[in-house]
Amino acid sequence: MNVNSNSILPKQKLYIVRMPTGQKKNIAFDFLGYTFRPRLSKNRWGKHFVNFTPAISNKAKKSIQQKVRDWKLQLKADKELIDLSNMFNSVIQGWINYYGKFYKSEMYSSLRHINKALIMWARRKYKKLSRHKKRAEHFLGRISKQNPKLFKHWDIGIKPTAE
User: Fold this and answer.
1) Could you tell me the sign of the dihedral formed by the alpha carbons of 117, 120, 121, 122, in that order?
2) Helix (H) or strand (E) holding 40
3) How far apart are CA 82 and CA 48, in angstroms?
């Protein structure tokens, strides 16, 4: 493919980053929902080194949390937990597949936000839990122990705490 010197390329999309060795300043940039920055990695012999790797960006995390808020789970008290699972598991699985490829632990805070929304749902659905946040969390924690594959983020270990 030939590129003319006359062709116009947008400056926002044309950004080349080279990480010089020994530089003190952290260089980071966002691209396709990932933040690329220097992170500590471990080689196959267990030695740590600095590597320039991607992870979910803060902007993408906020977008996920906003999407979960837009679901308005607390207003779906008429639904059962399995119905919520059927409604949202495909979206959660998509997020895990896309953002979990690199540095999966960085996205755990966004997945924990889904658990918080489920706790709010349980508090609205069950009158006994309405004033008890911890009891609602333990209730969902017990369900996640009994049925760990109900939600996709429970399946990878992001579960509410059980007593």
Assistant:
1) positive
2) strand 34-42
3) 43
Give the other-Cβ count within 10 Å of 62's Cβ: 11
Q: How many CB atoms lie within 10 A of CB 89?
A: 16
* Tokens matching residue 148: 């760990």
- What pTM was computed for the model? 0.80
Which residue from 63, 56, 51 is spatially nearest to 32, judged by alpha carbons? Answer: 56
Find, among 102, 113, 109, 110, the residue nearest to 35 by Cα. 102
Comparing C-alpha atoms, which of 104, 99, 120, 116 is closest to residue 157? 104
Q: Taking residues 154-163, report their average pLDDT.
A: 89
Q: Is the dihedral of CA 146, 152, 158, 160 positive or negative?
A: negative
**pLDDT (tens digit per residue) in 15-47:** 665 655 665 566 888 889 999 888 888 899 999
Identity of the amino acid at 120: M
pLDDT digits 0-9 by tens, 89-129: 999 999 999 999 988 999 999 999 999 999 999 999 999 99
Closest CA to 101 of 38, 56, 61, 155: 56
